[in-house]
Amino acid sequence: xxxxxxxxxxxxxxxxxxxxxxxxxxxxxxxxxxxxxxxxxxxxxxxxxxxxxxxxxxxxxxxxxxxxxxxxxxxxxxxxxxxxxxxxxxxxxxxxxxxxxxxxxxxxxxxxxxxxxxxxxxxxxxxxxxxxx
Length: 133
Prior knowledge:
133 residues, 0% strand, Globin-like, mainly alpha, globular, single chain
């Protein structure tokens, strides 16, 4: 998404989500759902017992990816998403659970329908690229 900043006039997806507070709310809802809903047990099992670190890393990453501050890069350097996810078995089922969880989180957080559709397409491309099984 961040590569589209220069080409897209108007507010960034980061701004449209409400800045850091909106991104944090989306990330928190995503991980709350992952922790609570049996439908997401497969992806929950790939995470550590406590989700605090995962919440922070996704929040930091999404801030920059959506056109806001590059918190993740400032802390860890280039995201290298695929390389960082290679130790985890990610197949079609995990991709689809991740997507369903994020779609539900966006709906629960009241993300504008047009923005949610645009984000869903971008999230799917990234989630599919993470598959290693």
